[in-house]
Design a protein that fits this description.
Number of helices: 23
Structural class: alpha/beta
Strand order of the largest sheet: 3-2-1-4-5
Number of strands: 5
Strand content: 5-15%
Largest sheet: 5 strands, parallel
Length: about 475
């Protein structure tokens, strides 16, 4: 029996129906095509993956399929390794081409793609990977990168249109298992941002309509930023909306002139989004080892008690603990708070960055490998290039949550603590504590380290190591490879 000729669109971190080049290319070909998404067991087992990620992906796909229903189309979900799925599809169909975006993922996904490429080539199938969000594959330095980014961003948006699908449905031997489906399909936490392209636009529109007017004022405030920031990072991370869609919407919005400072601020961060992913595209080793090899010799002693206290939000530093508990419940805190919790772990607690990098990856609903690992290393100072910022959690607490609103929201033990002590509750006398109905050391912990003493140790350690010969040599390579030159 003659097999039906088809093309494939492989959806990865691009779960949307518009401004989607692979879908547009498949339509243009005129050949029947199948849209697929793979829940790969090996990827699910990765230490950076969590249930909240899988839930967000699944519900994004549900929204995607709802939009495709009128065209008799759907994203077919497979629970299997990529090799198994493509072997199955080539056996069922006369597969001609596979369309997808390039993926700037971790090493496992990169190796997976290499194996898929070999398999498809062996079967005579062309795989057309398309540039995503102005990230360029194969470059050796950043010369001219900024110009390329700007040129990409001014290109018109793709207005995807869909023909009616007439492919005969097939038996899927790799349907999502009941155990996986049970984990990701139901009980999506209401404390998480809702998933999917439809909600991506609701958040973006609400930002430009009203929420964004105070973006530049509240961007570092742990509580106020939850309303005033764009809050589109999860949708960018999983591709519910493209960078170009967001940039066009903001840049050409009627409110741009009125809120120019805020809008330029978020547009700048959309560019940074691509800038960091470009770093990771060039060197995915950011995930597993110090990008400046000289910092591999910087000695740190693993302290499991410190790490456990940090992970769970019981370090005794209220703003740090509030941030960590908030992350557990909502999956989002602003950028400054992210850098602060990383700073405490790696500087004041003197822990290797790898002891916390996967924990935060699992907590961030907007986890994007290309941003997460380069920013983590930038913050902890293992690039040897960037200025090392060691954040004082008490000072930041006083500046950005002066009345302790955010702290009290996420640390109920401290609800009755007056403003004078909310940033340093350990300074209360026993009488103060009795009035507040809290006992420091029992209801809420004392600080696990001496902040001033460990801050000095951290500064001497990280800055002193910059004199290391290998650090200085590596710095030259990093500047040549990753510094933008127009």
């Amino acid at each position: 029996m003659k097999k039906e000729a088809v093309n494939i669109v492989w959806i990865k971190r691009d779960i949307r129906t518009q401004d989607h080049a692979p879908l547009a290319a498949a339509e243009k070909e005129g050949l029947p095509y199948l849209i697929i998404y793979l829940f790969e067991p090996s990827q699910i087992k990765c230490p950076d993956t969590s249930q909240r990620h899988l839930q967000f992906i699944y519900h994004s796909l549900v929204d995607f399929n709802h939009k495709l229903k009128q065209f008799n189309r759907q994203v077919v979900m497979f629970h299997a390794e990529a090799g198994e799925v493509f072997d199955f599809l080539t056996a069922q169909y006369d597969m001609r081409k596979v369309f997808s975006y390039e993926e700037s993922g971790h090493k496992l996904s990169w190796n997976r793609d290499r194996l898929v490429a070999k398999t498809l080539a062996k079967e005579g199938v062309r795989w057309l990977e398309m540039k995503k969000n102005a990230v360029v594959r194969g470059i050796k330095n950043r010369n001219g990168w900024d110009d390329q980014w700007r040129e990409t961003m001014v290109q018109p948006l793709i207005k995807n249109q869909f023909s009616v699908n007439r492919l005969t449905s097939i038996e899927n031997p790799f349907e999502l298992s009941q155990s996986l489906l049970g984990q990701i399909s139901e009980d999506y936490p209401k404390t998480f941002q809702p998933a999917g392209e439809s909600y991506a636009w609701k958040y973006l529109v609400s930002f430009t309509k009203e929420r964004g007017k105070n973006y530049h004022r509240h961007i570092s405030k742990p509580e106020l930023s939850r309303m005033s920031c764009g809050r589109i990072s999860p949708y960018l991370a999983w591709g519910n909306i493209s960078i170009k869609q967001a940039a066009h919407h903001i840049k050409f919005h009627p409110n741009f002139a009125k809120h120019q400072r805020s809008y330029i601020g978020i547009l700048t961060r959309l560019k940074w989004h691509c800038h960091f992913i470009q770093k990771f595209e060039v060197e995915c080793e950011y995930e597993t080892r110090c990008i400046n090899r000289g910092y591999e010799s910087l000695a740190r002693e693993l302290n499991k008690e410190f790490i456990a206290a940090w992970e769970s939000g019981y370090t005794g530093f209220p703003l740090i603990d509030a941030c960590m508990r908030c992350l557990h419940q909502t999956g989002w805190i602003n950028f400054r708070m992210r850098t602060m919790v990383v700073s405490l772990l790696c500087h004041h607690l003197d822990q290797d960055w790898r002891a916390g990098v996967y924990h935060l990856a699992r907590l961030f609903l907007d986890y994007e490998p290309g941003i997460h690992y380069p920013q983590f290393q930038m913050q902890v100072g293992t690039t040897g290039v960037n200025t090392v910022r060691i954040y004082n959690p008490v000072k930041n607490s006083q500046e950005h949550d002066p009345d302790g609103v955010f702290i009290k929201k996420w640390i109920p033990e401290l609800t009755n603590v007056p403003t004078a002590f909310i940033h340093t509750p350990w300074e209360m006398t026993a009488l103060d504590q009795s009035f507040c109905r809290v006992t420091i050391g029992e209801d809420y912990p004392y600080p696990i380290i001496d902040l001033k003493e460990m801050g000095k140790v951290a500064r001497d350690k990280i800055w002193g190591h910059r004199k290391d010969k290998q650090v200085r040599q590596e710095k030259k390579r990093i500047v040549k490879t990753h510094t933008r030159n127009g």
